[in-house]
Amino acid sequence: MERDREELEILLRSLDQQDITDALLSAAYYDPDWRWVQGRCLALSHHPDHVVRWYAAICLGHLARIHRQLDLEVVLQRLTELQTDPLVKAGADDALDDIRFFLNFQ
Q: What is the Cα–Cα distance from 86 to 32, expressed in whole angstroms?
C-alpha cells in the first residue's frame, strides 16, 4: 500500500514488526527518493528482529530493480555482513542477485 512520507516515518519507528515491514515495502515500491529509502533499509538492517532485517535486505534489492540505483559500496558491504546471519542470509542473497542483475554488477 502506498503511504506518504509522514506515515512512513511513524511506522518505521514503530515497535510492531508488521508496521515496520509494511512501511519498508511501501517505501521501496512507491517513494521516489531511493536514497532516503536506502538509508532506512540500512538502518533497519541492524534491527533486533530478524524479520525486519530480512525485509530491509529484500527492499534493497527492490530499490535496485525499481530505481536502478544504489550506493553500491555501502549496500554491498551491509548485505555481505547480513549473509553471515542465518536468519537473514536468504534475503541478503536475493537482494544481491537483484543488484547483480538490475545494476549489471558482478
A: 32
Angle, CA 28 vertex, CA 62 and CA 61 arms, to 5°:
20
**Tens of pLDDT along 47-68?**
999 999 999 999 999 999 999 9
55 φ/ψ sector (left φ>0, alpha ψ -120 to 50, else beta): alpha
Residue 76 has pLDDT above 90, yes or no: yes
State the Cα torsion 78-33-5-76 to the nearest 10°.
-10
Q: What angle do CA 3, 24, 77 make, to 5 degrees?
A: 145
Q: Is the pTM of this model over 0.85?
A: yes
